[in-house]
From TrEMBL:
Domain named PAS: residues: 54-79, 256-319, 424-477
A cellular-component GO term for this protein: nucleus
Alphabetical list of InterPro entries matching this protein: PAS (IPR000014), PAS-like_dom_sf (IPR035965), PAS_fold_3 (IPR013655)
Signal sequence segment: none
GO molecular function term, any single one: zinc ion binding
Pfam families linked to this entry: PAS_3, PAS_9
Residues covered by region (Disordered): 597-654
Sequence ranges of Basic and acidic residues compositional bias: 624-634
Matching CDD domains: PAS
Name listed for the protein in its UniProt record: PAS domain-containing protein
Organism: Jaapia argillacea MUCL 33604
Keywords from the named record: Activator, Chromophore, DNA-binding, Flavoprotein, FMN, Metal-binding, Photoreceptor protein, Receptor, Repeat, Sensory transduction, Transcription, Transcription regulation, Zinc, Zinc-finger
Length: 654
């Protein structure tokens, strides 16, 4: 994974393994059974992939290698059992002669059930030296990418180790359930790189930093040339720090806070800014000192203030611990609202973080990272040119007998199967956002598709054609482009589709993206992928047009909209719930009416209960209102709410 910074520096690890995300999922797991102490990149830990045979190690931290004496190349691809023998040679299922078989059995049984576990057992370093290892293994939920579609999927186990022989003080507390809270980060101290002062490396692990950036940070000429903000109110350069204190921030921290495309900020529980990173200057145009002490509601769109402040208030309530003997984990905070920039009006911003409680003092604050979200503009006329929306189809089935033969009448499920999905792509074809319909079309979850290129789903002969069409579309093409092709499904099959690429009318950004090392996200492309029985046949025309051709598909996300789509969505859910209850009552009344008697909505039925009669009148009113809307007229009492939507991947079908 490569995440270039604003200055084009290689910030993230070049290994391609997102360890910080995995450790974040470990620290923020919803219902922990074992209380972990401090967890960071200085811990001795390994990551195993449970999808592969024999659960091989796919990552071993440098501290783990120092603890065990094995090089990384000697560890990757092996099962962790090699630590249970002095010579490192032990086969799967072989009786344990050099360590406790009871402890090994406890670990195996717990991991088979995907449960957190902890045990102390005798392990051996390279060369045969024995040590007492307190092992804590955490199954990591969230699949590969941590997306909502993989919320319950376990792909990785993270095993933390601490040498109780050398670090007996690492145990912080024994809990009532018999487990231990351990300071894993204190297990081994890694010496700083040669030529690097203790001030630069103090308090910061650089194991997840690429070698190139580490080399740059070790050069005084490089760090002295960077304009760094040491506080929220002052800007200085590293050369101005004549006698820096031992507690001075690491230059890497200052570079990230200054150059990140996100802005880190700290809020009080009432929404006041306590800290704002200096990157806010480029993103929203404000100086950090302009925001300190002011409320976030002063800069929030008036229609978004209520849900924003409600979310901040609820963040101070800890999550339920489900009766466990461990303290509940803080709730994650996820905010999406419109914020007033200094020069470009309102912008959509997404902020994610969590509640922080200062140790020993109990003071609370919410630490967040905010990112501006660009919203494309696309007219319905472009969609009509390519055949419009593809209607979903009902799901039909027959109830089988125990012998497997299909019997009975065909039934229709209340849910429907989507035949298309929408999304956003970079101009290199990487999926940035996809709708939930991707599961019906390709079988993949949204989290499994995001981050992959569309070229990885097509045959090699079509890949060049698709990539060429993407390049042509990214050059501000005004006309949509269609590529008939076959995409691979999760079940290793192929499905005929039409990939429709739209260049958004305008995609604005709060800062100059040309300064980034890569420009793949400058002009996101809106894509529509729809199932086609025969990809070579002429595209079908839209069966009907409901929207004005000049209307914006994403009008619910326009920053000038006077209402909140979150409020509209809530009201629409209430309306749909009432309609569902009315339909149930009408069906119940229809079932109880005498055989052969006609049932007229709105008519008086002597056997109908008052709620059913009310439902029938509501159904009649709804039918009349629908007819008026189809004729282009609106009744005086018709609702003004239109269907809002919360994702760029789900196009409204009002």
């Amino acid at each position: 994974l490569s995440a270039p910074s604003h200055l084009g520096l290689p910030v993230y690890s070049t290994s391609g393994f997102d360890l910080l995300s995995i450790l974040a999922r470990v620290a923020n797991r919803p219902n922990p059974k074992i209380v972990l102490g401090p967890v960071d990149m200085t811990c001795a830990f390994t990551v195993v992939d449970v999808r592969r045979y024999d659960n091989p190690i796919v990552y071993a931290s440098p501290t783990f290698c120092q603890l065990t004496g094995y090089d990384e190349r000697e560890v990757i691809g092996r099962n962790c059992r090699f630590l249970q023998a002095p010579d490192g040679r032990i086969q799967k299922g072989e009786p344990r002669r050099f360590t406790s078989p009871e402890a090994v059995g406890h670990l195996r049984k717990s991991l088979s059930a995907e449960k957190e576990c902890q045990a102390s057992l005798l392990n051996y370093r390279k060369g045969g030296q024995a040590f007492i290892n307190l092992v804590t293994v955490i199954p990591v939920v969230g699949g590969v990418h941590g997306g909502p579609d993989e919320a319950d999927e376990v792909v990785y186990y993270v095993g933390f180790q601490v040498d109780l022989t050398e670090q007996p003080n690492a145990i912080l507390q024994k809990l009532r359930d018999g487990s231990y809270m351990v300071n894993y980060s204190a297990s081994t101290i890694i010496p700083p790189p040669a030529g690097t002062s203790s001030r630069r490396t103090g308090g910061l692990s650089t194991h997840a930093v690429s070698h190139d950036l580490r080399s740059l940070l070790a050069r005084p000429s490089f760090t002295h040339s960077l304009p760094l903000s040491t506080t929220a109110n002052a800007v200085s350069t590293a050369s101005n720090m004549i006698e820096p204190s031992p507690d001075a921030p690491h230059p890497l921290n200052l570079v990230l806070l200054e150059s990140s495309p996100d802005f880190v900020h700290v809020l009080s529980l009432k929404g006041s800014f306590l800290y704002v990173a200096p990157s806010i200057r480029r993103i929203l145009g404000y100086q950090p000192e302009e925001l300190i002490g002011k409320s976030i509601s002063d800069y929030c769109h008036p229609a978004d203030v209520v849900p924003l402040m409600r979310e901040l208030k609820e963040s101070s309530t800890p999550a339920s611990s489900d009766g466990q003997m461990v303290p509940p984990a803080p709730k994650p905070v996820d905010l999406l609202f419109r914020i007033q920039s200094k020069a470009k009006g309102y912008l959509w911003v997404e902020c994610r973080g969590r509640l922080h409680v200062e140790p020993g003092k109990g003071r609370k604050a919410i630490i967040l990272s905010g990112r501006v979200r660009d919203v494309p503009r696309l007219s319905w006329s472009s969609v009509y040119k390519t055949g419009g929306l593809t209607q979903s189809e009902p799901i039909r089935y027959r109830q089988p007998e125990s012998n497997g033969h299909e019997v009975g009448e065909e039934q229709v499920l209340p849910t429907r199967r989507e035949k298309e999905f929408w999304g956003l792509m970079s101009n290199t074809g990487t999926f940035l956002v996809v709708g939930s319909g991707v599961r019906d079309v390709l079988g993949w979850g949204a989290g499994e598709v995001i981050g992959r290129t569309v070229g990885s789903f097509v045959t090699p002969d079509m890949r060049e054609i698709l990539e060429g069409t993407l390049r042509a579309t990214s050059e501000r093409s005004t006309e949509p482009r269609i590529v008939p092709c076959q995409l691979s499904t999760k079940e290793s099959g192929l499905v005929n589709v039409r990939v429709v690429l739209y260049q958004a009318d305008n995609v604005s950004s709060p800062f100059d993206l040309s300064t980034l090392a890569t420009s793949s996200s400058q002009c996101p492309i809106v894509c529509q992928i729809k199932i086609a029985e025969d990809p070579s046949s002429p595209r079908p025309r839209s069966p009907y047009t409901v929207h004005s051709p000049t209307e914006n598909i994403f009008e619910e996300l326009e920053t000038t909209r006077g209402s909140s789509w979150q409020y509209e969505l809530q009201q629409l859910k209430f309306s749909n719930q009432r309609l569902s209850e009315d339909v149930d009552n009408l069906e119940a009344e229809l079932a109880s009416s005498p055989a052969g008697a006609p049932f007229l909505p709105g008519a008086f039925h002597p056997h109908a209960n008052p709620r059913a009669r009310s439902a029938s009148h509501n159904a009649t009113d709804s039918e009349q209102e629908w007819r008026l809307q189809r004729e282009g007229r609106h009744s005086s009492h018709s609702g003004h709410l239109k269907r809002p939507w919360s994702s760029l991947g789900d196009v409204p079908r009002r």
